[in-house]
Amino acid sequence: MRSDPRTARSVRPAAEHVVASLDETPLQAVDAVDTTTAPRSMWSEAWHSLIRNPVFLISAALIVVILFIAAFPGLLTNQDPNYAKITQANQPPSAEHPFGTTRLGYDVLARVLYGTRTSVMVGFFTMLLATLIGGVVGALAGYVGGIFDAVLSRITDIFFAIPLILGAIVIANRVDALNVWIVILVLGVFGWTNIARIMRGSVISVKNEDFVTASTALGANPVTNLVKHVVPNAIAPVIVTATVNLGVYIVAEATLSFLGLGLPSSSVSWGGDISDARPALRTQPMMLFYPSMALAITVLSFIMLGDAVRDALDPKARKR
Amino acid sequence: MMASTNDTATNEPLLEISDLEITFATTNGPVRAVRGANLSVYPGETVAIVGESGSGKSTTAMSIARLLPENGKVTGGSIRFGGKDITSVPTREILALRGNEIGLVPQDPMSNLNPMWKVGTQIKEALTANGMARGAKARSRAVELLEEAGLPDASRRANQYPHEFSGGMKQRALIAMGLAARPRLLIADEPTSALDVTVQQQILDHLDTLTADLGVAVLLITHDLGLAAERAQHLVVMYKGQIVESGPAIDLLQNPQHPYTQRLISAAPSLASRRLVSGTKRAEVREHAHEHLQPAESAGDRTAPEFGDAEANLDAVIQVQELTKEFPIRGAVPWKSMPFTAVDHVSFEIERGTTTAIVGESGSGKSTVAQMVLKLLQPTSGRVLFEGKDVTTYRGKELKDLRRRVQPIFQNPYGTLDPMYSIYSTIEEPLRLHGIGDAKSREAKVRDLLDKVALPAEMMRRYPNELSGGQRQRIAIARALALDPEVVICDEAVSALDVLVQAQVLELLNDLQGELGLSYLFITHDLAVVRQIADRTLVMEKGKVVEQGTTDEVFHSPQQDYTKRLLAAIPGGAIPLAGSETIDVQAPPVADEDDPMPTDGPSQTDGPVDPFSRAERA
Question: Which domains does chain A have, with CATH numbers?
Fold first, then answer.
């Protein structure tokens, strides 16, 4: 209690004891269970916040259109993208060729539409491959730890030190019969490192959570723990990065094709078309504009989707 | 600018809050966090706001200095400070009030000091910001203030960084900062809830003397009714955003009018401390457990365990012998690590069907003991015997069986459940892991378990993020009971919960013990809780057991000074209340408990040794 105060202090006029009436604040049962709302898992809650996010709605709509074009490019044009009619070269937009034709007489619209398939395929499968390699390496390194982690992390660092494009150029130069799958393999082999790093960090933070210890104490073995508790809880940031990476891989493929090191000219690719349109940049800028625009919209959609997913999965952004 | 003289002549309240309404804008629409709050603080007086988490107590206090989060707004009523309405004055005037007239001691001392700056510099900053002093004068004043806050060797301390301070010392530095400009009102928001009881007592004692000497009024925010009653003249009880009762501390405690206050008082462990079930009934429970022991082992769906010398001591389900754990800590050079003994030759037994509690302050090694008993950590030396057999020798199938029979309940209700798993999968997981029953019988079991922990079966389809802390802890208990264990290790299982919920969970644990004949090892820092639940008590200090005996022995005739100090530090323990025993232990005189590095040695009392600072000074 207080020892004699040096400063005099004023006292309450009266020691009033005020009680609120029960009607104002009705007493509830201790720790009552709310049974009115529908149950929500973390994923369903993330989904609820996603569909209220305009960024997600816009990017999702764009991606649906892009996927549709990639699946059925023939529905939107009756021109063959690989048919060059030199007599119709350098034509301005017309009913037959809405975007005009190139120097060699290719239909620009058809090439942009068919190019979507190549880009989306390379982006999607590279993302799968890179996430698979990176996810497994990162999860094992983070979960096992010790020397194993040190070795795997250094291997990751070695791959990280090689720029994606540079590595791909070197490998692509050595392969004669380049096709879409080889490009995917090459990009996947050099593009998994950031996924591995994110997975490793995420796994390390999750593996020390109480629920993992609790599961061990319940009799779960380490593998069960990793597969059933650690990975499902560590996967969210990987999903976000993988979505953003998808755009990066599309750009990488376009870059390779632009440099002439990617897909052969028989397969339609935006990168190759951009490269082909370069000499006529001053006379026919639109030839460059259409494939560039398609590339930009596609990459932007995936990056926006990644951002929206990040917002939805960020536990700090969600109310408890 | 306000007059800084004390209005000692008049009987005007220093702070007067009337009909205060605070609303938060959330994604689910506006939430009224505080509704029609009325309270006043007179000069030099200590007023405490008591309530559970989410009751609006901190929100009310923070609104005074306009420190509400961005989405919070005062939507009605008025706040008058020193006779002036400050509810809607420009921010400039509020800035002038902060520090100068209204000081603040925040809740978490660990995160409220900037780790990049020296402590002295941070206090100097507070002085300069309030125009109290500049340059060298501010520096010497900062040292004076630290000295005044009870830090020995203040001039050296002022040159140290926050990581070199213990929790208690940081809180002292924050008090020094709060009082730097000699405010007329000090808002202390749970100033000691992150600290050990003995440190808490010293800090509050010092705060009391200091504010009395300076004539500063204190608005104390706390969840601990006992602490509030001991420190404040006037109590304000908040519940769901409203003030349900307010009055003089002792009067309110002895004569509570509102049912919520009555409920709080009956639940507060420090105030109403008695063993929850009478001794005779517990003896029956134990007998019951003994009878069940032999037939239960061979009957039913269990595989008969083959524990060699099980009859060695049937009574003691767990025996801990000379248990020691050393951790290597970094030395002055990387290749020279030195051992830090976290647990030092600890021995005890848990009798079947009873509760053994281990109490100690942070860093006493009590949780390390629990982890070794659970076989989550390998002891450096010593043995843990489960039914007479050393747990370190358990492998494969045997280990799985041990896991089934010894179950943990952890401290943090927010970390203990996998957020990806529905409640059903969470409780079903142990059954699945051990391959018990089919889908249908498991569901029946889950329903049965939910019923045992008094939760509705509809809860099954929900996810942890939808539940409160207490509900999560009850789910964790249900999960621990799924495999019909014999021993449950509760590591601070109730310390993160509000008092009412805590009382509810303790009662549940106690009922389950009676019903199922469980044995508990209860790890806690809270002596008051021990008194409610434990049959035997061990007191640990710095890795050693300093005292052990029946709970009554330990509470009524403590032998060791350390135990006496712990008992004396229970807030509100000495307040006489109808229907409860008071704890009246005279604390032995000690040197300042909370000075972890009086000369050169590392921390002796307060948390683990910081190898960093030791290396630095060496």
Answer: 42-69+102-319 (1.10.3720.10)
